[in-house]
Amino acid sequence: MDGVILTPLKQIFNPKGDVFHGMKKSDQGFNGFGEAYFSTIHQGDIKGWKKHTSMTLNLVVPFGEVEFVLYNEDSKEFFNIKLSQKNYQRLTVKPNLWMAFRGVGENNMLLNIASIEHDPSEAINISLEEIAYEW
Asked: What domain range includes position 51?
């Protein structure tokens, strides 16, 4: 889907604690830095639909499993991916795509490395029923 980049990420395993790479400024998809935050989602719960008008998202799932669904309303195209330690990649989402996500694992956490600081007036939220998708 146009506006979406999947980047395989490095995991360094260590008996005293593992390292999970997130993003470097030299990576494809890096579009500046505004803030980084973690979000949790309970198993079976769905957050969304949300469309950012300026922010580029860089999403990483270091714990659990999260299913992301992106929707391009111009092309009517969906993009779906489950990220986890087993499928450890960074999902870069450019502005103007609708996104929703669902907790698949028992304990789920994602990291967003956002291109700009959070601004509530920059995003549009609609109910899950407004975009027909079969979860």
From this structure: 4-130
